[in-house]
Every structure is written in structure tokens, then in C-alpha cells.
Amino acid sequence: MSKIIVMTSGKGGVGKTTSSAAFATGLALRGFKTVVIDFDVGLRNLDLVMGCERRVVFDFINVINGEAKLSQALIKDKRIDNLYILPTSQTRDKDALTPAGVERVLNDLSKEFDYILCDSPAGIERGALMSLYFADHAIIVTNPEVSSVRDSDRILGVLASRSRRAEQGLEPVTQQLLLTRYDPERVERGEMLKVDDVLEILAIPLLGVIPESQAVLRASNVGMPVILDEASNAGQAYTDAVGRFLGDEIEHRFVSPQKKGLFSRLLRRSA
Amino acid sequence: MSSANQVAERDAPFQLRGNSFTMMVLKVNAPNSQDFFPQLNVKVRQAPNFFRNAPVVLDFDELPDTVVFDLAAFVAQVRAHHLLPVGFQGGPRPVQEAALAAGLTPMPTGRAAKLEVAKGPDPRAANPAATVTIEVVHRPAVVVTEPVRSGMQVYAEKTDLIITASVSPGAELLADGNIHVYGALRGRALAGVSGDINARVFCHSLEAEVVSVAGIYRVSEDIGSDFFKKPVQVFLREGVLRMDLLKTV
Ligand SMILES: Nc1ncnc2c1ncn2[C@@H]1O[C@H](COP(=O)(O)OP(=O)(O)OP(=O)(O)O)[C@@H](O)[C@H]1O
Ligand SMILES: [Mg+2]
């Protein structure tokens, strides 16, 4: 049985695409056949983060419109077995995402894949609604600041009322929180919300805390999901989160400031 | 699939839907009476905030067919008393035509029983068989066990609203009766929205953006730190919104 996961947030730029790429890669590394779909029609970022932008010929919208076969649009990752990307169109807009078309593509994919990961666009308009409509599980990507938390809360409400599971009275969409761009030092200075503050408002289980990290930008510049940067905090945090998603018991890391030696403190000051 | 319809609806430039509003009816018995406007003035002054720019329906039903008065001037006078005539009911034909010409909307006259006030004791009162008994039907409260999220609105029509989870900032609770929140109340809670001044808001932890009873409200800025994050009940006394800590034993 395949499982449809949506990576969603309401607010833009919080790390959905970064997390989708990392998560899909992590699931594939654990041996699950995984596809990650870009629902951000018109912007197309996922293929860049996954480093396959030069191999895109056909896309999700072509498949929805019957202009290409699914097998023509799916891009197999060069690094990892079991990992596929379904890129989106840069020239069309979100109206191209018809409910029937999306449903048909998802049905076809679920015959082959263990996990289908949907990278949602920002907002609560058509693209975002389509990406969450068929979901079994939602990963709510949130930054530790008030407006992001508010938007995530809003999305949780949408999941509870306008997803397929809600409309058909099925078991509700399960939900987990991925708190990204967490900077423990800024949290300590009171400039960002604490993990507990966010959990108090959203009241859903915590999947992981991804620290703010230079490694993320570095990785996306070379088209590599940051989870493959095993030396980085962010990469390790994503690996932990994938483990927790699969049921492993892993303690949360990167939530309190690292103790710094004199040397790095001096470095910081001059930076 | 209805989600697609909803998408289409949200993109539409307008939506048309039915709604019902409660309006006051100004019963016009003697428009030419010298006492009409002085008495209206007294009435309006008793509750200036309530009446200010309130829409009213002019009821001409009791006007004699022979009445002659300048309707446009009459409407202007009513407006000068901060009431906004928007429609009319009944009346002799010339009056109705003048009302239409003045831009008032004819309202359907399927009205409730007339109020009988100031007519002395009702002779039927002594005879129980003849009195109308109103059966009070129990309306079960609306109970919500899931968190009420930002952007959600829950309305308990003609009854109480009970939430056994938290209410997020940006969420809105409405009830004709009382509102109970057995979690943190961080959004808006409006009790007695149809005017029940005895309605109350009870909550486990008061962090609300707005609390209100029968339209009298307080915003979070005006909720003192004595009550913030405390179990509190909110109610009206003599037209003023009050808060009390709930004693937990
Ligand atoms: N943990 C992190 N540390 C530092 N930078 C990060 C982190 N996560 C994401 N970013 C950066 O934040 C920016 C937005 O990330 P991303 O594109 O993943 O967000 P998104 O939610 O998909 O945005 P959109 O809503 O536009 O689709 C990118 O520049 C990315 O490199
Ligand atoms: Mg994105």
C-alpha cells in the first residue's frame, strides 16, 4: 500500500521544497521506492534542489493533460536507487491542476511506489489545496516565528475540513510538525519562538527540528538534497526525522545552543 | 469533487448567498403628531449606541387611509435621529408609492404576532385554557473535541458551544448561548450573538483576541494581566463586560 505525504506550510519560503527533497531522499535511502512531486506549478524549484533540472523533458502537467506518459515524465535520481522526481511545468499555472487529473496520476503512481511525497506551493489556493487533497499524512513545515505558526495552524484547519479524507468522512489525515530553520541562539535571545511555544499552539506531534544551517544553501546550489551532506547538522537532523517517521525512537538534537570554544566565539565576533 | 468547486468559488469576483438580519421596526401611528419626533428623540437618547445608524423598517400598517403627510421629509427627520430607514411594511397605497419613490424597500409582511403593550391587563390571562403556551424545546449544545484552528469559524445557533480543545489565534467562536472552552482560548469568542445579555464565556485559559457578550466586547489589549492565561468567566453586568477568575477547587 502506498502512502501519500504532503509537505505543506501555508507560508512561503519556510523550507517545504528543501524538506521534500531531503525526505524523499531519506526514504529512498531506507529502501522505500519513493517519488517526489512538485505541485508548485509555474515556479519549479524541486528539480533544482534535486539537481535534475537539465533532464526535464516532460512534466506533471503534461501527464495530467495526456500529452505525455507518466514513464516519460518521471526522472530517476542518478545517485540513489528507488528515488524518482516528477517535476512540474514552468510555463503553465495552477489551474492546470485538475482534481481528476491529479487523482489519476496519483492512482497510477500508487501502483508502483511505497511513498508519494507532494511538495506543496505556498498559500491556500488551488495548488496547495490540490497537493494536500489526497494526502494520508501531512508534514507541517513551520519556522519558529509567529506568522509561520499562524499559517501552519490555518493549514491544519484546511486539512481537517477540505481534504479528501475529511470530505469523505474517512480516518483524518495524520499530521506531524517539522520545525525548520531553528536557531537555538536566537531562540535563547528571545528573537524566535521556542519549540515548546510552537507545540503549544499547533498541538501536533513533533517529527523533527532542523537547525538553521549554511549547509542547506550550499547543498541546493549544487543540486544535492542536504540529507546527503552527512557531516552537516541539517543533514543529520533530516536523517533523524526520517527515522522517526518510520518509527525509530530518536532523541531530538540541535534544539539548544552548542557550547562554543573560545576560538569559534572569536570567529563569530569578527564574522 | 466539492473541493474543486470551492476553489472556483473562491476565485469568483462575487458570491451570492442568502442571509437573514434582525432589524427594528418603527411603527408609525401618527406621523403628523407634534409629539412624534420629540418622543423618538427621548427614546433614542436612552441608548444612543444601540440606535446609532441602526437600520429600521417603517411600519405603516396602522395608518388610516385618509392620512396625508410628506413621506420624504418624514424619512429625513428619522435619519436626523440617527436611524436609517431601509424598508417599509403595509400602509395606504399613496404612502406605499411615496415610500418606493423614496428608495425604501417593501418588506414582506409575514410578521410575528403583534406585541400587545400598554393595553391594560389582558382579560384572557385569568383563563389558563386560553393562554398560549410556548413549548421550550431543548436544543443540545454544539460540542467540538478537535482544536479550532486559525481561519475556522464555529457557530452554535440558538444553543451553547462547548470546545474541549484549544482555540487558535485567528479562529472565531460564535454562539447564541454560552461558550465554554476547556483549553486555551486564543482566538475570538462571541457569546450571545443574537442579543442574549445573560450569555457568558467560560474558558480554561484566557488568551483571547476578542471576547464579547451580546455585542459588548473587549480586545486582548484590554484584558488585564490578572486574567491572562487564567481560568475566567466573562459576562455582562449592567451593560458592562466583566471578568471573574473561576475558582478551581
Ligand atoms: N534549515 C535551513 N537553514 C538555512 N536555510 C534554509 C533552511 N531551510 C531552508 N532554507 C532556505 O530557505 C529558502 C526557502 O527554502 P525552500 O525553497 O525549501 O522553501 P519553500 O517552503 O519550499 O518555499 P516556497 O513556499 O517558495 O515553495 C531557501 O533559500 C533555502 O535554502
Ligand atoms: Mg517550494
From TrEMBL, chain A:
<keyword id="KW-0131">Cell cycle</keyword>
<keyword id="KW-0547">Nucleotide-binding</keyword>
<feature type="binding site">
    <location>
        <begin position="11"/>
        <end position="18"/>
    </location>
    <ligand>
        <name>ATP</name>
    </ligand>
</feature>
<keyword id="KW-0132">Cell division</keyword>
<keyword id="KW-0717">Septation</keyword>
<dbReference type="InterPro" id="IPR010223">
    <property type="entry name" value="MinD"/>
</dbReference>
<dbReference type="Pfam" id="PF01656">
    <property type="entry name" value="CbiA"/>
</dbReference>
<comment type="subunit">
    <text>Interacts with MinC and FtsZ.</text>
</comment>
<protein>
    <recommendedName>
        <fullName>Septum site-determining protein MinD</fullName>
    </recommendedName>
</protein>
<dbReference type="InterPro" id="IPR050625">
    <property type="entry name" value="ParA/MinD_ATPase"/>
</dbReference>
<dbReference type="InterPro" id="IPR027417">
    <property type="entry name" value="P-loop_NTPase"/>
</dbReference>
<dbReference type="GO" id="GO:0051782">
    <property type="term" value="P:negative regulation of cell division"/>
</dbReference>
<feature type="domain" description="CobQ/CobB/MinD/ParA nucleotide binding">
    <location>
        <begin position="5"/>
        <end position="226"/>
    </location>
</feature>
<comment type="function">
    <text>ATPase required for the correct placement of the division site. Cell division inhibitors MinC and MinD act in concert to form an inhibitor capable of blocking formation of the polar Z ring septums. Rapidly oscillates between the poles of the cell to destabilize FtsZ filaments that have formed before they mature into polar Z rings.</text>
</comment>
<dbReference type="GO" id="GO:0009898">
    <property type="term" value="C:cytoplasmic side of plasma membrane"/>
</dbReference>
<dbReference type="GO" id="GO:0016887">
    <property type="term" value="F:ATP hydrolysis activity"/>
</dbReference>
<dbReference type="GO" id="GO:0005829">
    <property type="term" value="C:cytosol"/>
</dbReference>
<dbReference type="GO" id="GO:0000917">
    <property type="term" value="P:division septum assembly"/>
</dbReference>
<dbReference type="GO" id="GO:0005524">
    <property type="term" value="F:ATP binding"/>
</dbReference>
<dbReference type="InterPro" id="IPR025501">
    <property type="entry name" value="MinD_FleN"/>
</dbReference>
<comment type="similarity">
    <text>Belongs to the ParA family. MinD subfamily.</text>
</comment>
<dbReference type="InterPro" id="IPR002586">
    <property type="entry name" value="CobQ/CobB/MinD/ParA_Nub-bd_dom"/>
</dbReference>
Automatic annotation (TrEMBL), chain B:
<feature type="domain" description="Septum formation inhibitor MinC N-terminal">
    <location>
        <begin position="14"/>
        <end position="85"/>
    </location>
</feature>
<dbReference type="InterPro" id="IPR005526">
    <property type="entry name" value="Septum_form_inhib_MinC_C"/>
</dbReference>
<keyword id="KW-0717">Septation</keyword>
<dbReference type="InterPro" id="IPR013033">
    <property type="entry name" value="MinC"/>
</dbReference>
<protein>
    <recommendedName>
        <fullName>Probable septum site-determining protein MinC</fullName>
    </recommendedName>
</protein>
<keyword id="KW-0131">Cell cycle</keyword>
<keyword id="KW-0132">Cell division</keyword>
<dbReference type="GO" id="GO:1901891">
    <property type="term" value="P:regulation of cell septum assembly"/>
</dbReference>
<dbReference type="InterPro" id="IPR036145">
    <property type="entry name" value="MinC_C_sf"/>
</dbReference>
<comment type="similarity">
    <text>Belongs to the MinC family.</text>
</comment>
<comment type="subunit">
    <text>Interacts with MinD and FtsZ.</text>
</comment>
<dbReference type="GO" id="GO:0000902">
    <property type="term" value="P:cell morphogenesis"/>
</dbReference>
<dbReference type="GO" id="GO:0000917">
    <property type="term" value="P:division septum assembly"/>
</dbReference>
<comment type="function">
    <text>Cell division inhibitor that blocks the formation of polar Z ring septums. Rapidly oscillates between the poles of the cell to destabilize FtsZ filaments that have formed before they mature into polar Z rings. Prevents FtsZ polymerization.</text>
</comment>
<dbReference type="GO" id="GO:0051302">
    <property type="term" value="P:regulation of cell division"/>
</dbReference>
<dbReference type="Pfam" id="PF03775">
    <property type="entry name" value="MinC_C"/>
</dbReference>
<feature type="domain" description="Septum formation inhibitor MinC C-terminal">
    <location>
        <begin position="143"/>
        <end position="242"/>
    </location>
</feature>
<dbReference type="InterPro" id="IPR007874">
    <property type="entry name" value="MinC_N"/>
</dbReference>
<dbReference type="Pfam" id="PF05209">
    <property type="entry name" value="MinC_N"/>
</dbReference>
<dbReference type="InterPro" id="IPR016098">
    <property type="entry name" value="CAP/MinC_C"/>
</dbReference>
